Amino acid sequence: MAAQRGVEIYRYTPRAAAMYSPGTTVTVYDPGRAYDVAEGLRAERAAGQAADSTAAPGPAEDDAMDSR
Description:
The chain has about 70 residues and is of the alpha+beta class. It is built from 2 helices and 2 strands.
């Protein structure tokens, strides 16, 4: 998902004493861009939920709500 959204990544190999498995490469994402992407996704989800809650009920939903 990070690659699809254009979040920059950095790969580095920490010093041997910093990890249990020396020589393992670690991927770190740009925190500022990752935060911006997360905020955008939250806004999209909130807009979608708001649109769903304001939509008129369909025929099946309307029949189920009919108290006659």
